[in-house]
Amino acid sequence: MFGRVCSSLVSCRPVLRVLQGGSRHLRHCNAAATTSLPSVCFISRSAASDFTSRCFASTSRMADKEELRKRLTPLQYTVTQEKGTERPFTGCFNKTYDKGTYVCICCEQPLFSSDTKYDSGCGWPAFNEVLDKGKIKLTPDTSGVGANLLLLITQPGRIRTEVTCSKCDAHLGHVFDDGPPPKRKRFCINSASMNFIPAAGDEGDANKS
C-alpha cells in the first residue's frame, strides 16, 4: 500500500501527505528537518510515482532548455522559448518562394508547405494553411491587453491567437482571419522559428522574390 521516497528526491522539497496512524498531515520533506521528521517518508505508491515523474520531467525540461540555448541563435531562442517576435521585414524567409517545406527550428516537425505561402505585406512569412492541423496548437493570447479587463471587453479584437508547435511547444507566431480566400487565414510566422527544406530538385536561390 505504501512506498518509500528515495532520499535523493528529498532535495525537491515538495509538500507530501504523510500518512501516520491513519491520519493525514501536510509536512515538508526537508533533509535539514531531521528533528521533526523521520528519515523516510511513507506515502502511497501512486503519489510516489507521480512525484518522481514530475521531478524527472522538470529536470528533463531544464536540460532541454539548456540544449536549445546552445544550439539556437539568441533570436531563435527568444522567439521560440520566450514568445518573442523578430522585427518585421528582417526574417530570412520573408521573401522566400522556393518549393519546399518549412519545419520547426527546434524539433524539425514539418509545419507549412511553400504552396500555401504568399506575400501578405505584413513583414513576416505568411501562409494560408498549415500542413496538418495536428502539427500546431492554437491558444488565445491576451498579452495585448494584459490585466486590463475593460480592454478585454471593449476591444476583443486585441486578443490574438498564438500558434505553437504541437510537438515541442515552440512559439511560432499568430494566426489572423484576414487572409486570402477561400481559407481567409493568415498564419503570420517568425522566420526565426522555422527552417526550410527545399523540395527535391529545387535548390534555387532561397532569397529570390
Automatic annotation (TrEMBL):
EC number(s) stated in the UniProt entry for this protein: 1.8.4.12
Bound cofactor: record note: Binds 1 zinc ion per subunit.
Xref: InterPro entries: Met_Sox_Rdtase_MsrB (IPR028427), Met_Sox_Rdtase_MsrB_dom (IPR002579), Mss4-like_sf (IPR011057)
Family per record: Belongs to the MsrB Met sulfoxide reductase family.
Highest rank taxon of the organism: Eukaryota
Residue ranges occupied by any MsrB domain in the UniProt entry: 65-199
Gene source species: Nicrophorus vespilloides (Boreal carrion beetle)
Catalytic reaction list: L-methionyl-[protein] + [thioredoxin]-disulfide + H2O = L-methionyl-(R)-S-oxide-[protein] + [thioredoxin]-dithiol
Protein name per the record: Peptide-methionine (R)-S-oxide reductase
Keywords assigned by UniProt, alphabetized: Metal-binding, Oxidoreductase, Zinc
Top EC class for this record: oxidoreductase
